[in-house]
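Q: Could you fold this chain for me?
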Amino acid sequence: MSEADAPKGAGEEAQANQPRLSILTQYVKDLSFENPRAPMGLAPGQPRPEIQISVDTNARQVGEQHYEVVLQINIDAKSGETPFFLLELAYGGVFMLANIPEDAIQPLLLIECPRILFPFARRIIADMTRDGGLPPLLLDPIDFATLYRRRLAQQAARTNTAGSA
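A: Sure. Below is the predicted structure, expressed as C-alpha cells.
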C-alpha cells in the first residue's frame, strides 16, 4: 500500500506517537550579583581573580507531561581572600515531554534540557559581569552528560554507604 493509499490520518497518528521534547517557557528564577569592589573592578596592575564556578541541575514534574528544569550556576571570584564578585543564577524552563520511555525521562531532563537552557544563562552571566563594570565572563560549554553521570555515581555511593550502615 502506497502512502497515497494509506487511510487519511495514519501519518498524523504515527507522527503524534513520535517522542517529543518542547520548551514551553524559560525564565530567570533567581539572580543575584554582588560587586563589592565597584567601581574599582579590575584596575590595571591588579591580579586577575581566581574564579570558582559550580553548576547544578534540578528537575521536577509540574503537570502531566510538563517538567520544570532549573540550571543553577554559582560563580565566586576572589583574589586571595579579597572578593571581586559573586554571581548566582537560577535559570529555568518548562518542558513538555510526550511519548518518552520512562527510563529516558531523567537523562533527558538533566542532560538535554540544561543543554538547551545553557546558552541563555551564559548570555545573562556575560551581561551581568559586563554591566557590573567587569569584562564579560563567557562560560565554556558544560558537559551535562558528565554532570549527570557524577550525580548517579554520588547517589549510588550514598545508597551503598547507607546500605552498609
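A (continued): The mean pLDDT is 88.
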